[in-house]
């Protein structure tokens, strides 16, 4: 197995969806790399969005994201103004600045084609073609957005290749699942944060790792602040949802209810999820749909417990990314592949282990917290109403955070021996997801997506 740094489990991305927005944008960037040597011959581009990307792509901005990616834009540098400028150029002036270098004609109706049928290797597949002036295809690439903003080529999928170091046996520390990670922790008397840090040091220096984690924490906190002070009153899209975080913040801060802590956790999650739903810059953690679970738990620790400082934030993120890597490597973090249990469930599981760790739990207890959090998300379907990452996604982030906190506390206070291991529940989640009818895997063809009619 090829192993790589886990830092990219957390990355600065653009909303509303990691698999349907960030992934197609990254695919556009990858195509730019491939097409650049023959750029002078390219006269036109055609894009085929398949499966879930076709069924819910417009609501998730997949069409716009691929336009941004083909224009050579990257997620970290996007602002609302840049996003609008390039979309206006494509839709009103009918031009694409391919790779940021060559202007070519673009016709949205003819050049982006939506096809419900899946490509062979994943529910989120797309094909990009470059054509010459005679309409002859001179380059064709097939990509798969596999969740969390990660994209693989057809060749990667067929060979099951992964980026990363060629030979994991050359690494001193190999932690590709919970079982072998716990063995390493036991041998060295490490907790999960220390194991994750020692693992990352095989790929990056200590300062880079710490700075990366702190930048992620900063962007999460900015996102919360922006979510409490939005420019627009309503979220974009057909649901016409009024943003709730600003009003909720005013009410929650005035409450004297002892259960008000629950409302604070909901506030943190709703504010960040609404930013994501608006198409703003967020941290993909491990996906955009589930981007608020982890920061909501971190904000709970920061604002409602004692001693949560920057060092603890780094340890929290290191632990969470290690748990997230187990899901990504051995199962899925894609709602289109395994339902919402793979997104909100995985985020809740990551947050539970991370919270337990920063509160002093051993690796065994933290893995149990991660297991408990996932166990009670098993079977959770993905059925976004209107194909938008709004209902049920925004509130679901709040519940994911609350369950994570509950799981961490339950594991830290238990005296009994857990019967289900973290690897067992990860395997179960993946099997359950694969057995799930495709109606419930980010197609908006079942569940709430078809039964919620009041907005039409
Ligand atoms: S229902 Fe869950 S998996 Fe589906 S889009 Fe919403 S947050 Fe993502």
Overview of this protein structure:
With 456 residues, the chain is of the alpha+beta class. It folds into two domains: 18-159, 2-Layer Sandwich (60s Ribosomal Protein L30, Chain: A); 168-202 and 204-451, no CATH class. The protein has 19 helices and nine strands. It has helices at residues 18-35, 52-55, 62-70, 80-91, 108-111, 154-159, 178-188, 192-200, 206-228, 245-253, 260-277, 293-304, 310-330, 335-338, 344-358, 363-375, 393-413, 422-435, 448-451, and strands at 11-14, 44-50, 95-98, 102-105, 112-115, 125-131, 137-147, 150-153, 281-284. The protein has a five-stranded mixed beta sheet. β6 and β7 form a beta hairpin. It is globular and about 70 Å long. Residues 289-290, 335, 340, 343-344, 382, 384, 389, 392-393, 396, 442 line the site of iron/sulfur cluster (SF4).
Strand order across the biggest sheet? 5-2-6-7-8
Q: In which range does the helix fraction lie?
A: 40-55%
User: Roughly how many Å apart are the termini?
Assistant: 48 Å
Give me the number of helical elements. Answer: 19
SSE-based structural type: alpha+beta
Low-confidence sequence ranges: none
Q: Give a list of the ligands.
A: iron/sulfur cluster
What is the total number of structural domains? 2
> Taking Cα atoms only, what radius of gyration do you get, to the nearest Å?
22 Å
Subunit arrangement of the protein: single chain
* Mean pLDDT over the full residue set: 94
Give the number of DSSP strands: 9
| Order of SSEs | EHEHHHEEHEEEEHHHHHHEHHHHHHHH
Assign an overall shape. globular
Largest sheet: 5 strands, mixed
Share in β-strands: 5-15%
């Amino acid at each position: 197995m090829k192993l790589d740094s886990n830092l990219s489990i957390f990355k600065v991305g653009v909303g509303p969806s990691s698999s349907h927005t960030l992934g197609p944008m990254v695919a556009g960037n990858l195509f730019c790399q491939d097409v650049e040597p023959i750029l002078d011959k390219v006269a036109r581009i055609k894009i085929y969005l398949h499966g879930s990307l076709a069924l819910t792509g417009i609501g998730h901005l997949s069409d716009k994201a691929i336009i941004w990616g083909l224009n050579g834009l990257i997620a970290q540098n996007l602002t609302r103004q840049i996003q609008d400028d390039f979309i206006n150029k494509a839709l009103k002036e009918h031009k694409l600045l391919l790779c940021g270098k060559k202007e070519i004609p673009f016709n949205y109706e003819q050049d982006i084609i939506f096809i419900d049928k899946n490509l062979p290797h994943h529910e989120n597949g797309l094909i990009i073609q470059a054509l010459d002036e005679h309409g002859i295809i001179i380059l064709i690439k097939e990509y798969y957005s596999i969740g969390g903003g990660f994209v693989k080529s057809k060749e990667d999928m067929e060979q099951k290749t992964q980026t990363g170091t060629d030979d994991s046996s050359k690494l001193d520390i190999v932690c590709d699942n919970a079982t072998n990670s716990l063995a390493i922790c036991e041998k060295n008397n490490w907790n999960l944060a220390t194991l994750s840090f020692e693992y990352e040091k095989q790929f990056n220096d200590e300062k880079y790792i710490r700075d990366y984690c702190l930048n992620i924490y900063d962007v999460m906190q900015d996102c919360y602040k922006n979510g409490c002070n939005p420019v627009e009153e309503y979220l974009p899209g057909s649901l016409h949802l009024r943003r709730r975080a600003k009003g909720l913040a005013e009410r929650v801060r005035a409450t004297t209810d002892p259960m008000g802590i629950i409302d604070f956790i909901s506030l943190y999650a709703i504010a960040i999820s609404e930013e994501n739903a608006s198409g703003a810059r967020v941290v993909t953690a491990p996906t955009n749909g589930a981007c608020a679970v982890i920061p909501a738990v971190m904000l709970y620790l920061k604002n409602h417990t004692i001693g949560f400082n920057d060092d603890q934030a780094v340890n929290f993120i290191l632990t969470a990314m290690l748990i997230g890597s187990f899901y990504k490597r051995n199962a899925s973090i894609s709602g289109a592949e395994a339902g919402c249990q793979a997104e909100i469930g995985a985020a809740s599981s990551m947050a539970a282990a991370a919270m337990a760790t920063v509160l002093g739990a051993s690796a065994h207890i933290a893995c149990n917290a991660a297991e408990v959090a996932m166990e009670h998300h098993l079977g959770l379907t993905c059925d976004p109403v209107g194909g938008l990452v709004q209902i049920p996604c925004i509130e679901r982030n709040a519940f994911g955070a609350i369950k994570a906190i509950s799981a961490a506390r339950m594991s830290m206070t238990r005296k009994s021996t857990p019967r289900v291991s973290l690897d067992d529940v990860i395997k179960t989640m993946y099997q359950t997801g694969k057995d799930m009818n495709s109606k419930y895997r980010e197609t908006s063809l079942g569940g709430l997506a078809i039964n919620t009619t009041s907005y039409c």
